[in-house]
Amino acid sequence: MEDVLRSLGFLCLGSRLKRIGEQLQADTQRVLDRLDVRIQYPLLAALDRLGPLPVGELAQSLGIAQPGVTRAVSLLTELGLVEVTPSDDDQRRRIVSLSADGQRLVDAAKHDVWPRIEGAVAELCADLSGPLLGQLAAIEDRLAATPLDRRADKAKAVAPKAVAQ
């Protein structure tokens, strides 16, 4: 069957990028599920990288809407992975920080999980060149042939410098 999003090219670029993003997120979640982890890491990674943040700044650092971050923070608080405290200078502002358990989870993920996922994505995108639409087609074809979670099982960690190139 014709892939309409692919055939319409730049007209459906946003939808196509969303489809690729959703596939990568679903495949990443399968990796996490095998490790019996039911959380998404971007919020925890932001807190690890930037330190304690107000909810609004946390949302801004991730480029997502504040209500989504508020819901995620509530879940992570219930799981004992983050702590929320009022700001010293404004009691209406809530500051989110990693709990001790959250920091242990992030430390373990940085050692075991993130390098595998990063390596799988780097391998997926290796040697892409040419026009953007051709690169997206190659990524989609490669994901269809071997989903990211299967790539992560055999991926070697890739140094961040190599990924950035």
Largest sheet at a glance? 3 strands, antiparallel
Radius of gyration over C-alpha positions, nearest whole angstrom: 18 Å
Overall outline: globular
The percentage helix is 55-70%
Ends distance: 35 Å
Low-confidence residue ranges: 159-165
Using DSSP, what is the number of strands? 3
Quaternary state reads single chain
Percentage of β-strand residues = 5-15%
Computed structural class: mainly alpha
Would you list the SSEs in sequence order as H and E? HHHEHHEEHHHH
Strand order of the largest sheet: 1-3-2
Q: How is the topology of this model organized?
A:
Blueprint lengths: L3 H4 L5 H22 L7 H9 L2 E2 H8 L3 H13 L3 E5 L7 E5 L1 H26 L6 H14 L2 H7 L5 H5 L1
Antiparallel strand pairs: 1-3, 2-3
